[in-house]
Amino acid sequence: MSSGIRPPRFGAGKGQIPSTVSELVKLVQKGEIKAQEILEVSLQTIAESDGEINSFNLVLHEQALEDAKKVDASIAKGGFSGRLAGIPIAIKDNICTRGISTTCSSKILANWKPPYDASVITKLKSEGAIIVGKTNMDEFAMGSSTETSFFGPTKNPWDKERVPGGSSGGSAAAVAAGMVPLAIGSDTGGSIRQPASLCGVVGIKPTYGLVSRYGLVAFASSLDQIGPFASCVDDAALLLDVLAFHDEKDSTSLGRDRYQSGNVNIDVSSLKVGIISNFLPNAAESCHQAVTDAARVLANFGAKVDEVDIKELDYAIAAYYIIAPAEASSNLARFDGVRYGLRVDGADVEEMNIKTRTEGFGVEVKRRIMLGTYALSAGYYDAYYLQAQKIRTLVKDAFNKAYGKYDLLLSPTSPTVAFPLGSKVADPLSMYLSDLYTIPTNLAGHPAISVPYGIGEDDMPVGLQLLGPALSESLLIKVAKMLEENNTDKQDN
């Protein structure tokens, strides 16, 4: 097994490419660098690296170039104020893009092209972002390693014999490998934060409803949330600022026009921080150490740091793997060979439906559909699904109680660093436990952020998770920024 080697950030060694997206946008808006030039850096890096990493299911060379030219033309005519003007961005392949394949990395949707854009895509385009491609993922976002994809696994840019995490592994790997400065993914049980941790980038799971889900292909509707990936906290905050808006097309969208991230600087001396102590015994030494080091930094700056045992969180993973498959069973019923994607003919409709779903879905998706259907079936609904929902309420209440005492909570993002490819595919329970620390936040609908914090076993990155109550993104970002600046292992290449 080879040891991890830190990949370069986007534009490293390219001279005039600055370290943050906001700095790069200013140069584009002033006409000092062209969007086409930035895009060329992205496409060149993808061409050089992605053959081995497999981050992308589709790269939009011609469309991206056309969009970059439009941004440059607008600026030449008198300016363009888009907050992401000329910035290449990668899109997880379960987010609808009009006329462009949206496969969810599944055979059943391998040739499907949506007739509309997701609301977040419309927003990104209006702000001048350049969509360079659709990224690989676990099939229908069901997985923690990006190994269940119909298009093959994505590899971790730090060590190509290891997983990038999942299910948004393609987006995380694309940012980690310096192919793009920004990407978006979806987080149902940790699918942004866990790959962010394993790939050494920043990932944010926003408050449920803060970012529109319109156009996100549903896995578990009450848990899914779109969010950003970036190489630093500033860039992630900027992208979240763009993504957070009220959308009338999404009935769960929060009633606010725009999330205001504001100044990311903070005085933490008045903060009370709780370390989730019952998460630590299961964590690898390096993941445990990251929490200890962060707590020391916070305490040195005056924050009050205590350990807190939230025992209800220990039941979250069991409840999640009843609720999420149940919702998936319902949501994926639409893929029947009639309305979307693949059709395998049969003697009658029933046989056609069976053959289509048998051939179109992978093993993990079938497993979760069957689990969910069983949990919702007559005679078992009360025993399983209803009990899981009661646990979900207990988890949310336990979080709210903790937030009555603490401003935010601290934990590892993942129990381990990135594990070897193939090591957990045949052991679903072991794979599910990769999301042990991230799932509770989804059940509660609260925000959390993963920020790189140290190097662990086999020289692989470690992620630190900050958790907060609903709509506390601004606080989490500010504290994450402070920790990033005081991390002795900051990425500086």
* CATH classification class of one domain: Alpha Beta
This entry's quaternary arrangement is: single chain
* SSE string, helices as H and strands as E: HHEHEHEHEHEEHEHEHHHHEHHEEH
- CATH fold field value of one domain: Amidase signature (AS) enzymes
Amount of helix: 25-40%
Shape, per Cα inertia axes: globular
Superfamily (CATH H level) name of one domain: Amidase signature (AS) domain
Give start-end ranges of low-pLDDT stretches.
none
Q: How many strands appear in the DSSP assignment?
A: 11
Largest sheet: 11 strands, mixed
Number of helices: 15
Q: Give me the side-by-side strand order of the main sheet.
A: 1-3-2-4-6-5-10-11-9-7-8
Summed up, what is this model?
This protein is α/β, with parallel strands linked by helices and 493 residues long.
Topology overview:
Blueprint: H1 21-29, H2 35-53, E1 56-59, H3 61-76, E2 88-92, H4 119-126, E3 130-135, H5 169-176, E4 182-186, H6 193-199, E5 202-205, E6 226-230, H7 233-243, E7 272-276, H8 285-300, E8 304-308, H9 316-331, H10 349-360, H11 363-376, H12 381-403, E9 408-412, H13 428-432, H14 439-444, E10 448-455, E11 461-467, H15 473-485
Parallel strand pairs: 2-3, 2-4, 7-8, 7-9
Antiparallel strand pairs: 1-3, 4-6, 5-6, 5-10, 9-11, 10-11
Helix pairs in contact: 2-3, 9-11, 9-12
